[in-house]
Amino acid sequence: MEFETVIGLEVHAQLKTKSKIFCGCTTAFGNPPNTNTCPVCLGMPGVLPVLNKTVVEYAMKMAIATNCAIGPMNQFARKNYFYPDLPKGYQISQFDLPIAEHGWVDIEVEGKTRRIGITRIHMEEDAGKLIHDEREPKSYVDLNRTGVPLIEIVSEPDIRSPEEAAAYLKKLHAILRYLDICDGNMQEGSFRCDANISLRPLGQKEFGTRTELKNMNSFKNVQKALEFEVRRQRDRLLDGEKIVQQTLLWDADRNVTNAMRSKEEAHDYRYFPDPDLVPVVIDAAWIEEMRATLPELPDDRKKRFVEQLGLSDNDASVLTSSRELADYFEAALAQYPNGKKLGNWLMTELMRLMKGEEALDISQCPVSPENLAALLGMIDAGTISGKIAKTVFEEMMLSGKDPESVVKEKGLVQMSDQGEILAMVQEIIAANPEQAQQFREGKTKVMGFFVGQLMKQTGGKANPGLANDLFVKALTE
User: Fold this and answer.
1) Mean pLDDT over residues 348-360, rounded?
2) HSE toward the beta carbon, residue 217, CA cutoff 13 A
3) For 216, left (φ over 0), alpha (ψ -120 to 50), or beta?
4) CB 329 within 8 A of CB 357
5) Is residue 8 a contact partner of residue 156, using CB atoms and an 8 Å limit?
6) Is residue 358's pLDDT more than 60?
7) Which Gene3D superfamilies match (predicted)?
8) Cα dist. 421→227, 388, 424, 450, 468 in Å?
9) pTM of the model
10) Which of 140, 162, 210, 300 has its CA 20 to 30 A from that of 316?
């Protein structure tokens, strides 16, 4: 029996406001436990929350960027449940009147574009954090995160594979970073998601029994957790067993899911409108004011890179996958206007040295865009070869020095003196008569041997183009 995978994602993004959603406490990460708190976010009796206007504006920006409809009025509600890190005994969220609904984003997987619907975006406050003692059976509560503003982005169940789920998350992550409303740090919990997944026989309209996955702190872990759950559910269904609706935690060390709690019945959060907060009214003028502040978004920037710079669709996708990488590319492009060559260096040498996904955030890269442009200019001018440039670039990554200084200190200037190179060419040909005869008989691949011998003799400093020409001339005379 063939099965179809059905996935829906609930993404929580912490907003980059200076203060919390309903009080003036700082949102700074990493402060000592329970120091970013006040009577409001601690839920003391008699206090009144006051809505942070910037939270509303950031939520509006994300709604516009994801093609959502912003309602003329939205309302906060109390979501009632009891948990140690929720001091009020309820969370201020939104229920029947969220700020935005009915949006979409396009994702690309294996060369195919799919549109993933967004059910809703709503604003809410974050809960605190429990810290479990590994040595003793006790836990500690840190309420610094309580009241930090969140937007929750709920997808339609339109995602059909773990690969699509990862692509959707990366797209939302990129949009949030482009808008500069969320830092997207998954390790710190600024961007996190819960995944609902079920399987159904191919062609069936009714959804299967779903499970919910939590505790996934990277794009790779989300994809691996979903892949595991697809296999687990498929094996159970083929064995004639039922899927139990439950919440599962992903164990990244063992690459398995573990049951957290059963969800056989829907939880009743007893939502009701928060009596301390008035409805938020949003008119068309405010929406257009926010629309005017939006930067060029990933899809538009990608299209421009393809149409104006002649980049391939795949290269443009990589270079626009993060705002920081695209900004770096364009800053270097202003000094070195060869988009294809520059893009290749970013996607190969820079990403290799910065280790994959970390290269997407190159704000801490020791090589400035101007210095990378200068390095490529030295290759074009014949000052250094492409091979030497890679060595120079590695040193630039370690030291942060400009390419001219590295080349001068290491004595890496390319040899381009024709007479000097010609003398070595003739010596190499004389020392290798068998290979010289092979070349004259039409075996042109042997040219690689000759150029390699010259590069070995000169420590890679000889101009390869000039060397190739001189070898051909000397061997055909």
Assistant:
1) 72
2) 10
3) beta
4) no
5) yes
6) no
7) 1.10.10.410, GatB domain, N-terminal subdomain
8) 57, 17, 5, 12, 10
9) 0.85
10) 162
Q: What does the angle CA 229 – CA 230 – CA 235 come to, to the nearest 5 degrees?
A: 95
Whole-number percent of the chain with pLDDT over 90: 73
Q: What does the domain layout of the chain look like in residue ranges?
A: 3-286, 298-410, 418-476
Q: Is the pLDDT of residue 356 over 80?
A: no
Return the minimum-mean-pLDDT range out of 265-269, 279-283, 380-384, 402-406. Answer: 265-269
Angle at 72 between CA 191 and CA 102, to 5 degrees: 50
CA 369 to chain CA mean position, Å: 20
Determine the pLDDT at residue 241. Answer: 94
Closest listed residue to residue 149, CA positions, set 172, 130, 165, 126 = 126
CATH class of 418-476: mainly alpha
Rg from Cα positions in the chain: 29
Contacts of 373 (CB under 8 A, 6+ apart): 332, 333, 334, 335, 336, 342
Note the pLDDT tens digit of each residue in 306-324: 999 999 999 999 999 989 9
Query: In whole angstroms, what is the distance from residue 54 CA to residue 72 CA?
Result: 17
Give the total residue count for the chain: 477
Query: At residue 41, what are phi and psi to the nearest 5 degrees?
Result: -75, -15
